[in-house]
Amino acid sequence: MIEIEGLQKSFGGTDQPVLRDLSLTVDRGEIFGIIGRSGAGKSTLVRCVNLLERPNAGRVFVDGAEITALSGVELRSARRRIGMIFQHFNLLSSRTVWGNVALPLELAGASRAQIAREVAPLLDLVGLKDKSSAYPSQLSGGQKQRVAIARALASKPAVLLCDEATSALDPETSQSILALLKSINRQFALTILLITHEMPVIKAICDRVAVLDHGELVEQGPVFDIFTAPKAAATRSLVRDLVDRALPEWLIQRLQPWTGTAVPGTNRILRLTFTGPNANTPVIAQLVRRFDVLLNILQANVDYIQGLPFGIIVVEAIGTPAAIDSAIEFVLSRQLHVEVLGHVVGDDRAVA
Amino acid sequence: MSSAMTALLLDGLLETLFMVGVAGLLATLGGVPIGVVLVITGRGHVLPHPSVNRLLGLLVNGFRSTPFIILMIAIIPFTRLIVGTSIGTLAAIVPLTVAALPFVARLAESSLREVDHGLIEAAQAMGASPAQIVFKVLLPESWPGIVAGVTITLVNLVGYSAMAGAVGGGGLGDLGIRYGYQRFQLGVMIAVVLVLIVLVQSMQSVGDWLAGRLNKRLIRVRGEQQ
Fold first, then answer.
1. Which of A18, A35, B84, B124 has the smallest C-beta neighbourhood within 10 Å, fewest atoms?
2. What is the rounded distance in angstroms from the CA atom of residue A194 to the CA atom of residue A208?
């Protein structure tokens, strides 16, 4: 649906390109996320899709048409098939909710009757039927973004571009906007390309994700894979914020590096990662029962990404070195990931 | 005050209103489009055109920096060409318009420039043409500011019209100078000043009210939040 080939963009001077040789394909009907820290070039990338920013090199196709080959009237008519919503909503303060949603239809030269017919169902869709004569200054941020979504859908676009659409909203409102986007995506099979710096946004609605770092795509794939097995350093640091919580302070202070051999009087700290088909098996209970090992849970987090469970548990394993070794082997045999973070001197609290 | 004096004051007021009204209207009709051109031909706007922008900017500044009294005299040949004479209320409208037009243009330019660039981008993303952006986004969004600017211009024009009066333009300023200054009739001078104060005050109030009505950004203060 959206194909980007060898996109290159730099501003002003030529020394520091914002985007370098970037290629990307977004399939029909999917929600594709692009994530990156600020300054990674995300905004420039999404703005190159409808040519709000013209790339220095490379081609962009939307629904089979080469956007980068268009200008003037042709470009304007192609843009009507590309909806866009923004971080700061960009509603006209001089127009009511109704008037804002009617704008793209007016621009396309629709008749009054046609506009009247089409605006009402759109307001209904975004749940703002009763606000139709309100002005944007009377609305909350979430309501403004709903108006912007209705406005973007008015011209029946083939794709919807979201430029940090939830970044100005509080987490709760943000989730409701994301839910609306997802339902629109499912209902109309509308392709959505969204950019964000927030991993929770990607986790909530995206099918696939690409990670942008310093103008380059460093990694892309299904959201679950990127979350559970991030490869690039930029991805790992983004994922760490969300799923891989930092260890508690007291543990970091006491943790000694693991050398491969057990030191008497110390307990190993293990990090178990649950993903894939065996993520639902009661491994912790099995470990305690089958092996003479006590597990002191220090940190646990189970998340669902695209409906699949993904858990991380940090435990202090108390038992003989041999028992712990075989416990680790057992976990590995279940195709679950386990990592020895180090070991700590066992204290009364842990033993008790 | 004698009835003759009252009649003089009334005539003066009507002449002033006529000069200021017509000049203000013409200046608005000419100045707002120039303001629009100054904005949209600017760098990074919808119709960037640096040479047009610079030339128009220079022209506007040239007229704006000429003191009104000098401008009025300097364009006498032009005034004669337009209205056939350089004396009288009708003739005063020409220099008043020429002086007010670039002023309106600059004030309109500054309110048009205040329109959030995000709105222009949103319109572009919807496939709006430059003309559509001007008429559907820029102008509707800046009407409150433009109305406030026109109000300031009208108040300025009242002052200018008194200067025009000094060289035979009629109006309240003329009245004040002839009777109040040259004939030492203090009563007339005070009456003229009072009428001018009331006039300027009412113009400002009407302008503020209208700008407030047009401004939908502050509606929350009046309207209720459901």
1. B84
2. 11
A77 interfacial to chain B (CB closer than 8 Å): yes
% of chain A exceeding 70 in pLDDT: 95
pLDDT tens-digit profile of A73-99?
Answer: 999 999 999 999 999 999 999 999 999
The CA distance from B86 to A126, in Å, is: 64
| Closest Cα in chain A, distance from residue B124 (Å) | 7
* pLDDT range class, residue A14, cuts 50, 70, 90: low
B121 to chain A, any CB pair closer than 8 A? The answer is yes
Provide the token pair at A329: 């082997």
Q: Does residue B216 belong to the interface with chain A, where contact is any CB pair within 8 Å? A: yes
Give the integer Cα–Cα distance in Å for A152 and A173: 19
Distances (CA, A) of A95 to A92, A312, B116: 6, 50, 15
Segments forming the whole domain that contains residue B77: 3-225
Model confidence pLDDT, tens digit, residues B124-133 = 999 999 999 9
Determine the Cα–Cα distance for residues B197 and A261; give it in Å rounded to an integer: 95
- What the block records as the tokens of A124 is 């209904």
pTM of the entire predicted model: 0.81
Q: Which residues of B touch A95 (CB under 8 A)?
A: 140, 216
The mean per-residue pLDDT over the stretch A20-35 comes to 92
CB neighbours (10 Å) of residue A189?
Answer: 11
pLDDT (average), residues B136-159: 94
Domain count, chain B: 1
**CA distance linking residue A192 with residue A85, whole number of Å:** 11
Looking at the complex, does the CB of residue B43 fall below 8 Å from at least one CB of chain A? no
Q: In this structure, what CATH number is given to the domain that contains residue B27?
A: 1.10.3720.10
For the ranges A175-184, A221-230, A340-349, the one whose mean pLDDT is highest:
A175-184
More confident residue, A243 or B15: B15
- Best CA proximity match to A342, nearest among A277, A254, A272, A275: A254
Predicted confidence (pLDDT) at residue A180 exceeds the cutoff of 90:
yes
Q: Which positions ≥6 away from A34 have C-beta within 8 Å?
A: A24, A42, A45, A46, A193, A194, A195, A196, A209, A210, A211, A212
Average pLDDT score over residue span A201-222: 90
A327: left (phi over 0), alpha (psi -120 to 50) or beta: alpha
pLDDT per residue over B41-75, tens digit each?
Answer: 998 898 999 999 999 999 999 988 888 889 888 99
Residue B3, both tokens: 């009835």
Q: Which of A333, A344, A189 is nearest to A251 (CA)?
A: A344
Distance separating alpha carbons of residues A247 and A291, to the nearest angstrom: 26
